[in-house]
Design goal:
This protein has 152 residues and is mainly alpha-helical. The chain has a single domain, classed as Ferritin, core subunit, four-helix bundle (Ferritin, Up-down Bundle), CATH 1.20.1260.10. 79% of the residues lie in helices and 0% in strands. It has 4 helices and no strands. The termini are far apart.
Length: 152
């Protein structure tokens, strides 16, 4: 059973997203909404990762050796200025999208395994991840005109 691999991928993706949210919030403290919402979202991602921990332990016994290149590297650090904020938000969006599709895949596996507890976690976290994506998209829309049209 390879479910343990995806649980590990999702767990690591959530922790990486939490760290990236913290970095972006700290790098763009001059944008109060970005700072506070990024800190809030980082805590949310940490909570999601913690919810996955018991399932990773449950399914780990059945997992074969971990395949190469399971984890992706999507965030290389923050940038400065208006265009930097826009690019940082886009990086967060891509990372959250990776989490979103992993939740979908894990949810389908939970259906197949008839694991109601895992399915409950997926339903909760999948919905909140969708909200993260919506906020990131709307914040990019807000930042784009200033960053791309108005000279700094």
């Amino acid at each position: 059973m390879h479910l343990a691999h995806y649980l590990g991928l999702l767990h690591r993706a959530q922790l990486n997203l939490a760290d990236a949210f913290r970095q972006v919030g700290a790098a763009h403290q001059d944008e109060p909404d970005v700072f506070h919402l990024c800190q809030q979202q980082a805590k949310r991602c940490d909570g999601f990762a913690e919810l996955l921990r018991p399932f990773a332990a449950r399914y780990a016994e059945e997992a074969p050796a971990e395949p190469d290149r399971l984890h992706s590297e999507l965030f290389g650090g923050t940038r400065s200025g208006g265009i930097g904020l826009l690019r940082d938000l886009q990086d967060l969006y891509l990372m959250a999208a990776e989490c979103d599709i992993c939740w979908t895949v894990v949810g389908q596996a939970a259906y197949g395994a008839r694991d109601r507890d895992l399915l409950a976690v997926v339903r909760r976290c999948e919905g909140e991840t969708a909200m993260q994506l919506k906020w990131l998209r709307s914040r990019m829309k807000q930042a784009a005109p200033q960053a791309l049209v108005v000279a700094e």
